[in-house]
Amino acid sequence: MLITRDVRQSVACSVAEVMAIAADLRRLPEWARGFASGAERVLRRPPEGETGPGSEVWLIDAPFGHVEVEFSIDRERGILDHDVTMPDGEVVHNRLRVEPRVNGSELVFTVPMQPGMTDEQWRADAQAVADDLRRLAQLCESIHR
Fold first, then answer.
1. Which CATH number is 12's domain given?
2. 3-state DSSP percent of the chain in helix, strand and coil, to 5
3. Structural domain tally of the chain?
4. CA distances from 105 to 13, 66, 99 (A)
5. Buried b (16+ CB within 10 A) or exposed e, 15-45
6. For all residues of the chain together, what is the average pLDDT?
7. What is the pTM of this model?
8. CA-to-CA distance for 67 and 22, rounded, in angstroms?
9. Residue 106, Cβ neighbours under 10 Å: how many?
10. What are the tens digits of pLDDT across the range 85-131?
């Protein structure tokens, strides 16, 4: 069973205003400093024998190593989920939502406790996420207010 905790941050901006910034993945290093000090977009071709457009992957310089991230973005519904392929090949599924509220919106990031992670490591991970969400809220509010 996967154990998770939600980290929440209020934003005095609409879902559309937040998603305009959060879904611009080139801006990740501006607000997701606990996760990305650099971000580069790479287009992957479909596997041999398959047709289709391929996929978009982001190469991220993270504090825990160089990782590949594939995003699932739905701007209208406020979804910015992403799968992170760790340096050891493990894939971590991350859920990030921007939910409408009366006076703006709320960022909700579900932080999973990874196998082998201590409570202290999980708390530190959640704190890094909280710091990133606070920076995103401040960035959105500075631009849209």
1. 3.30.530.20
2. 30, 40, 30
3. 1
4. 6, 31, 5
5. bebbbbbbbebebbeebbebbbeebeeeeee
6. 90
7. 0.87
8. 19
9. 19
10. 888 998 989 999 999 999 999 999 999 998 889 999 999 999 999 99
